[in-house]
Amino acid sequence: MVQRPDPAGGAGLKGFTSQRYTDSMYLLANRPLLKQWLRAAALVAAMSCLLVHPVFAQRADADPPGLSPQQAAQNKQNQGQIAATGWLQLLDVGDWGGSWERASPKFRSLVPLDKWMDGVPQLRKPFGRFVSRTLVESNHRTAMPGLPPGQYVSTRFSTQFSNQPNVTEVVTAVLDTDGRWRVVGYYAK
Q1: Burial of residue 76 (number of CB atoms within 10 Å: 0-12, 13-18, 19+)
Q2: Sign of the C-alpha dihedral computed for residues 74, 79, 80 and 81 taken in this order
């Protein structure tokens, strides 16, 4: 290990100096410290991405001009899938309240917070820890049973958990009036 003198004569933080060249050389020579610093920087970068890009409420941009009806439906389907996947990630980490808050107002009116906070842990905890998820199918619709006409995307996933290797999850997203795709329905079995 490289020993580095303290230029402040012990008055500063041991092992640190304000000289950039010396600091860079010290980090390169002290690989464990460099690895620790890089891990911390990567964690900060990852967390800032989560704060900047909330995929659980995907904003729908207008369909680009010149799309065929099939292409426009595929565009909506993709946006609904992104919102569904982001929302499921909240469930995967046990953020029950966050998932309820980021769901559609229609969802929140149908499922009060206290029932969601009691029901989802009972449904998900027996599955165990989340392992992986595979998209099975996704469908764009303009009508859903029991819901008003609108833009809906139902996405079915095959999900693997530590205690249940084959769980089917169905997430339905709706294009809300504010132009964001949000979850309006969830089913797991």
Answers
A1: buried
A2: positive
Q: Is pLDDT larger for residue 157 or for residue 3?
A: 157
129 and 84 in a common domain:
yes
Number of domains in the chain: 2
Are residues 152 and 169 in contact, defined by beta-carbon separation less than 8 angstroms? no
Q: Using 50, 70 and 90 to split pLDDT, how confident is the model at 13?
A: very low
Strand ranges, E, within the chain: 58-59, 130-141, 152-161, 167-175, 180-188
Domain extent for 128: 56-188
What are the counts of helices (DSSP H) followed by strands (DSSP E) for the chain?
6, 5
Q: Clarify whether residues 139 and 153 are in a common domain.
A: yes
CATH number at residue 173: 3.10.450.100
**Could you tell me if 176 and 123 lie in one domain?**
yes
Task: Report how far residue 161's alpha carbon sits from residue 165's, in angstroms, rounded to the nearest whole number.
Answer: 5
Contacts with 17 (C-beta within 8 Å, 6 or more apart), sequence order? 4, 6, 7, 8, 23
Q: Nearest-CA neighbor of 92 among 40, 176, 169? A: 169
Q: How does DSSP classify residue 24?
A: H
**Quick check: 41 and 49 in contact, CB under 8 A?**
no
**pTM for the predicted model, two decimal places:** 0.67
Residues 30, 60 within the same domain: no
